[in-house]
Amino acid sequence: MSKGKYGIHGGQYTPETLMNAIIEVEKAYEHYKNDLAFQAELTELLNDYAGRPSRLYFAKKMTADLGGAKVYLKREDLNHTGSHKINNVLGQALLAKKMGKTRLIAETGAGQHGVATATAAALMGFECEIFMGKEDTDRQALNVFRMRLLGAKVHVVTSGTMTLKDAVNETFREWTTRVDDTHYVLGSVMGPHPFPEMVRDFQSVISKEAREQILKKEGKLPDAVIACVGGGSNAIGAFYNFIPDASVRLIGCEAAGKGVDTALHAATIANGSLGIFHGMKSYFCQDEYGQIAPVYSISAGLDYPGIGPEHAYLHDTKRAEYVPITDDEAVAAFEYLSRTEGIIPAIESAHAIAYAMVLAPTMTKDQIIIVNVSGRGDKDVAAIARYKGEDIHE
Amino acid sequence: MSKHIIIEENKISQIFKNQKAFIGFLTAGDPCLSKTEEFILAMAEAGADLIEIGIPFSDPIAEGPVIEAANERALSVGTTTDKIFAMVARVREKTDIPLVFLTYMNPIFVYGVERFFAACEKVGINGAIIPDLPFEEKGEVLSIAHAHEVDVITLIAPTSQDRIQMLAKEATGFIYLVSSMGVTGVRSEIKTDLAAIIADIRQVTQTPVAVGFGIATPEQAATISQFADGVIVGSAIVRIIAEHGAASTEPLTAYVKSMKAALV
Ligand SMILES: Cc1ncc(COP(=O)(O)O)c(C=O)c1O
Questions:
Q1: How far is residue A63's CA from residue A77's CA, in Å, rounded to a whole number?
Q2: What are the residues facing A127 on neighbouring strands?
Q3: B chain contacts of residue A276, beta-carbon cutoff 8 Å
Q4: Cα of A234 to ligand 1 centre, how many Å?
Q5: C-beta of residue A374 within 8 angstroms of C-beta of residue A75
Q6: Against a cut of 0.80, is the pTM above it?
Q7: Would you call A378 helix, strand, or coil by DSSP?
């Protein structure tokens, strides 16, 4: 029987060689998610080590400048290691420890998930190997060195398009060769069940906090929550506890690269179609024969040809909306937030900021937008300089 | 349990009757489809009992570097599922050797499951191996494939353990027993206790068991065929094609002959 379904999406499309490993994770997660001691240990790590709860910051200057809805920023960029990825990694690393695993492997795009995994491995005493596409080791060189500094081995993936999708392929291949002592820390709400559900649960702390924080500050729910979408983990984390609140618009921002009418984008909902890949049924950028399309975005973390199955379902049921944001718009937002609020966002998160800049002026002053700032932009500074034609050394 | 399980004889299971079977794999379109056609016929002529034809996929996650590179070569020359069906139709005019497709779920799903298996039946494809379609998900494919007389080949891995009998019970055609952990690729040593796994399988089914992943030499083939019904060779064949390109017919013929002769 097919498990982990979101409407028609999801499932467990995994080679037989990995089925028992995945069932082992599934059983362990089913057990520990209801285990109070496990949850207490995780909460302590999230709070004392990663610095949660993250702030909900009222962006006063941005709000005044845009002249419409009040803009709040959920500051996942202030977490230890600089992004939301740590929320999921601490959960999975703790689970891996309980399962008796001694080695963590992971894919990474922007390098944030790799850094978070290497960090948890250092903290909890795991061996750690990270797979990263060659395109991405070039454009996110700083994070490659951070991972090495933390004691992880970084494998440069040169197959296929040499980006996030290929890093996922390689990590699955690696896991196949060694399941006994190894846990694959998948970095987003994708892959075969139980990953989409487990990663969503670990990330839903974002909306759990944000909902309480906004009710305390404003006495009411926001009108919209905006987040960027690669695989969709920060977005589902930011959306999840607002899903039952029908008045809250949930808006995911996909990478439109050079534009959705060009071949150079990664906008899965805008241009993708139904498929089965990386363990799940969902939407993918692909051709008429089901060959996965090479995708493009300035943002290594959004440069992925698929989207998590729960997002595909939220799209089908129209509970969430997905909008494409181009490189140019994201870079403009990257600079805008830096200058206006003194916050340099990750280029991924800048896609969400960019849409807030479009949406806020169309709303009234008593309305509220929460933007999830999924990460900080230090890693992107050199790439943005290059994008603008400045030749700087990292 | 009864020793006299009646197996439905079909085109695939017949190749295991009174002999050990040699199964060869190649990627369609590597280096081009007209050569694939020639290579299939040459391997059949040289004594192969069944040919697995890989429909190339952009992201073959169960494949090692050798077959992955063949997938990339095939796609780079414009190989498509439709062109492969046309090639198989031409092959079928010249040989009735059983033919099985190996591909991933996405090329089948996006082509349309019904349309795909109807086309298989029309051109005379006898089975399909779909590495990323586990037991738990096969529901959406199996009845359609069977309606078109295509076996969906069951894969069993060294890690299958408590799943082995559940998987084997429903197997038709043959069982593809993965000989070692990891992805496809040539291996110098094969460590897994395959005989024990086969004994497990035999308790619940008479469906023949062929062993693959990492088999390259006649010596390995001889050893494996002592306890398995057949051996499957992929990467070693694809390597020959990678090395000799369009001129692979002769070395492939020699290789297949040597492997078939080694089976006991
Ligand atoms: C800061 C940041 N935001 C967002 C993403 C995209 O991932 P997801 O859609 O899973 O949140 C990444 C991925 O690398 C990231 O580093």
A1: 20
A2: A103
A3: 105-106, 109, 132
A4: 6
A5: no
A6: yes
A7: helix
Contact call for residues B237 and B217 (beta carbons, < 8 A): no
Instruction: Out of A129, A135, A374, A379, pick the active-site residue.
Output: A374
Pairing of strands A249-257, A224-228: parallel
Q: Using an 8 Å CB-CB cutoff, list chain B residues near A15.
A: 61-62, 131-132, 134, 155, 157
Separation CA A245–CA A241 (nearest Å): 8
pLDDT higher than 50, residue B7 = no
Answer yes or no: is pLDDT of A102 > 60.
Answer: yes
Let me know: does A49 contact A90? Beta carbons within 8 Å.
yes
CA distance to partner chain A, nearest, from residue B132 (Å): 4
Q: Is the pLDDT of residue A21 over 90?
A: yes
Helical (H) or strand (E) element with A60: helix A60-66
CB atoms within 10 A of CB B76: 12
Average the pLDDT over A15-43 and give the result. 97
> Does B64 sit within 8 Å of A290, measured CB to CB?
no
Could you tell me which CATH number the domain at B3-153+229-256 has?
3.20.20.70
Q: Which residues contact B16 (CB under 8 A, 6 or more apart)?
A: B174, B208, B210, B229, B230
In b/e form, how buried is each residue of A81-108, taking b as 16+ CB within 10 angstroms?
bbbbbbbbbbbbbbbbbeeebebbbbbb
Contacts of A316 (CB under 8 A, 6+ apart): A7, A8, A9
At A28, list the tokens: 């362990």
Give the integer Cα–Cα distance in Å for A169 and B258. 34
Contacts of A289 in chain B (CB under 8 A): 80-82, 107, 110-111
User: What does the mean pLDDT of chain B come to?
Assistant: 93
Of A15, A159, A286, the CB nearest to B62: A15
Residue A335 known to be catalytic: no
